[in-house]
Amino acid sequence: MTERYLTIRVRPRSHADRATVDETGQVIVTVRSAPVDGAANDAVLRVLARALGLPRTKLRIRSGHSSRTKLVELDDILPEEARARLVAQADSAIPRDGD
What is the CATH superfamily name and number for domain 8-93? Predict the structure, then answer.
């Protein structure tokens, strides 16, 4: 069976909604929402789906609903491809000399 799960680390109450990959390869999702009544979890899935270019319905939190570390089930994309998309997105946002 193909691995369909992506472990992410969430930072609620952040200044911006963003999905990135840190230097260790860990996916970090920052959201402005507070972790109250599932608002941060909803925001995490929305931000991650937008960053990956997927419909929100293709992502589900499978564990960690009340934790900052979550296991997200992915449809139509492998975890390695998800990380690669996030890295590519971050690389394209970095201004280059002369840009």
Answer: YggU-like (3.30.1200.10)
Sign of the alpha-carbon dihedral angle for 86, 92, 23, 38: negative
Tens of pLDDT along 42-57? 999 999 999 999 999 9
Going from N- to C-terminal start, the domains of the chain cover: 8-93
27-38 per-position pLDDT tens digit: 999 999 999 999
Tokens of residue 26, six digits = 């860990």
The pLDDT tens digits of the residues spanning 61-76 come to 999 999 999 999 999 9
Please give the distance of CA 81 from its chain centroid, rounded to a whole number. Answer: 12
- Cα 96 from Cα 8, distance rounded (Å): 28
Q: Which residues contact 20 (CB under 8 A, 6 or more apart)?
A: 27, 28, 30, 86, 90
* pTM exceeding 0.90: no
